[in-house]
Amino acid sequence: MLSFVTIRIAMSALAKNKMRAGLTVLGVVIGIAAVTTMVSVGMSASQLVQGEFENLGTNVIIVIPGNKESRGGVRRQVQSLTAQDAAAIATECESVVAATPIVFASAAAVFGNSNWTARETLGVDENFPTVRNWQLRLGEFFTERDVAGASKVCVIGHTVVKNLFQTSNPIGQVIRVGNIPFEVIGVLETKGANMVGDDQDDVLFMPYTTVRKRLQGSNFNTVNIIMASARSATLMKAAELEMDSLLLDRHKIALGQPADFEVANTTEIANVFGIITGTLTMMLAAIAGISLVVGGVGIMNIMLVSVTERTREIGIRMAVGATSKDILVQFLVESVVLSIVGGVIGIALGVSASVGLTTLINAVSTGRPWPIVVSIPAALIALGFSALVGIAFGYYPAWRASRLDPIEALRYE
């Protein structure tokens, strides 16, 4: 156990050279601050990416048409998916809770003297809110009966409300989309911008049958994509396999033949992004950690100089009864104290820097705000590592001091 006298002597020696002690811990401060900042910002980016995929919907799986090579080597998308495929997925795949067909459209919406073209104008069915986990702020979503009858009804996002109706209540109002009147029956809850700055509330949804028959004048039952929701995150893979098997059977695709569709699991995509951001975070932390090693070398150099300068003091201490172990412990304590003090200051600077950097990113970014994340585990690990740096790089100078011959040390000038 360390004696109080040994600790007091070590602290007194550091206090006599405040400037040198301050410069010694600077490398550790920079290293700890850099590690804490990089890990915290990296975790913030990872949470942002994960949040974006969660915002897409609940356990979402997307089916898109496949590509087919045409003459000249040009690949084009094949319109192979139908609304019946979406219905079959919802009823025959046990791991799927709901599915909706989606048809893309583009048309300006007009109300009175105002007109607005939504960023997304989509034809969907009554299951869309369940799949996307999107609640309504006002009114209601259209029903299965509306879809079957190709009713001229629509549900809009907050941005469309703001640009067409300003402060008036949109429920029950009639807007014209592509010169066709649609009654507004619902307003969605706000979602804000995504991480690339796209406004997720700039949307207009109608029954997909209405889009096909009235806006596009088409009697085809094909859809652009199908979006489904698994019953739970653990059933995502099972749902994906069930959907793949069902569609292969429905499209009469023989075993070994290329499918005319692709199934994309958004959870797997999110996990890939998580691995990428995690790897980048670790790389940045490792690069920042190099400065900790540099700080440790600085501690060793200063402690070696200190041993040389205090040779006579060491001789006096050993002459009055101090053992080699006492000398070793004294210099180790000095080294560890320097490292820990540098670590504490570095954590404080790192936390401040991570909060400041995230705030700056949010100030200049038009996308979804980055969450402010302070990695306490990273800070504690960095603090523990700084103590290890002090022991590792301080041991040799301490050992060298403990091995001095008392007689020779007393003669040292």
Describe the oligomeric state of these chains in a short phrase.
single chain
Structural class by SSE content: alpha+beta
Distance between the termini: 33 Å
In total, the number of strands is 14
Molecular structure report:
The chain is of the alpha+beta class. It has two domains: 4-54 and 272-411, no CATH class; 79-259, no CATH class. Helix content is 55%, strand content 17%. The chain is built from 13 helices and 14 strands. The chain has helices at residues 4-16, 18-56, 83-92, 128-132, 144-148, 158-164, 208-215, 236-250, 266-309, 311-319, 324-364, 376-402, 406-411; strands at residues 60-65, 67-69, 75-77, 96-105, 109-111, 114-116, 120-124, 136-139, 153-156, 174-177, 180-188, 203-207, 225-230, 261-265. Strands 1, 4, 5, 6, 7, 8, 9, 10, 11, 12, 13 and 14 form a twelve-stranded mixed β-sheet that branches. The longest helix is centred in the C-terminal third of the chain and has 44 residues, at 266-309. The chain is elongated, with a radius of gyration of 33 Å. The two termini are 33 Å apart. The mean pLDDT is 78.
